[in-house]
Amino acid sequence: MTRSSADIFEESLLEFFAPIRSYLDDPTVTEIMINGPETIFVERQGLIVRAPETFPNVRALVAALRNAAQFVGKSVDAEHPVLEGRLPDGSRLAAVLPPAGPGGPYVAIRRFFKEKLTMEKLVELGALTKDACELLDVLVKSKQNVLIAGGTGSGKTSLLNALSAYVPSDERVVVIEDNQELQIQRSHVVTLEAKPADARGKGEVSIRELFKVTLRMRPDRIIIGEIRGGEALDLIQAMTSGHGGCLSTLHATYPRDSLTRLETMALMSDVELPLVALRTQIASAINVVAQVTRLRDGSRKLSHISEIQGFDTERNAYVIRDLFVRRVLGVDAATGRVESSLEPTGLLPAAYEAITAHGYDLPRCMHDAARSRSAAGS
């Protein structure tokens, strides 16, 4: 079979990354971090170790990055020292060259599972329980707006990919991303990708522009890969004007932090809105925060499923009700693994009526926990 010029280019690009090629081919590696030509770290199962391999010199590493830039139609040099793009296998690459990164180039390559992660697989891996999985299922199917929050490398994208399987198959899903990473598990999907300006400062297509077009494309669901800026306000306003069932991710450590982060990014838009009005809109728009975290042993877990029930203007605070919370039980002395349990709190969501109206119910454990809580309080 004759190889295409694209295949030959991809193979030659990977040759430039020969020192880390084995890690690019290793499905257990989730991140490759390069701190200059002589220092490489890799992450497996949440644990980071130093690799013995090195690049010959700075020139060799820069040459690899220039070829990666060419692959995605960008340029990287002293005048354009920041590169974001993808490798042929879909891995996400971010790099900073000198002078912006003295001692570099610094590179981070985020690997993604080639097989699609399902909710069942995440349960098998211990990231969440069947009961939490069942709750997320009915929340998505009953068109609650779900925000997945967590720190870097905590598993936000993996959870969003898996959650997309709960979207009814007859719905039209429009996905907006900075860099195409999501693997939406549905067939009727429109994927839109932002585009940076070229070397002459032309041709930029922003997330906000794509979002405005999306509203005219008859979406049943809108999924934004990650909220990073002023598009937060557009999403909030769409959520409060009839576009239910939206999904997105956000960098935040706790459910309450995710809402204040959303405030900050909404304020980055060019629309002036009183803070109280913005907070009221956020509380109305975001129904649920699914919080993911990375424990001390490197394992990625769902730590909270929290419902947003409004904004208390007197207390100047969001009203948040935790439906599931992960409790850390201790550390296994033999393995060093953190032992934890994700449990229902005994509180039922205000969205229960909307859930039953769609023909669904909550997991039995939530009703049992609610009865136990009520009995303990009586």
State the main characteristics:
single chain; 378 residues; alpha/beta; Beta-Lactamase; Rossmann fold; 2 domains; 9-stranded mixed beta sheet; 12 helices; 31% helix; 26% strand
Number of strands: 15
**pLDDT below 50 for ≥5 consecutive residues: which ranges?**
none
Distance between the termini: 75 Å
**Helix-strand pattern:** HHEEEHEEEHHEHEEHEHEHHEEEEHH
Could you report the average pLDDT, rounded to the nearest whole number?
A: 89
Which structural class do you get from the secondary structure elements? alpha/beta
How much of the sequence lies in strands comes to 25-35%
CATH superfamily of the largest domain: P-loop containing nucleotide triphosphate hydrolases
CATH architecture of the largest domain: 3-Layer(aba) Sandwich
Strand order of the largest sheet: 9-8-10-11-7-12-13-14-15
How would you briefly describe this protein structure?
The protein has 378 residues and is an alpha/beta fold. The protein has helices at 5-16, 21-24, 58-71, 119-124, 130-141, 156-163, 207-214, 231-239, 255-266, 275-285, 352-357, 364-377, and strands spanning 29-35, 40-44, 47-51, 82-86, 92-96, 106-110, 146-150, 173-177, 189-193, 221-224, 247-251, 288-294, 300-312, 317-331, 338-344. It has 2 domains: 5-110, 2-Layer Sandwich (Beta-Lactamase); 119-377, P-loop containing nucleotide triphosphate hydrolases (Rossmann fold, 3-Layer(aba) Sandwich).
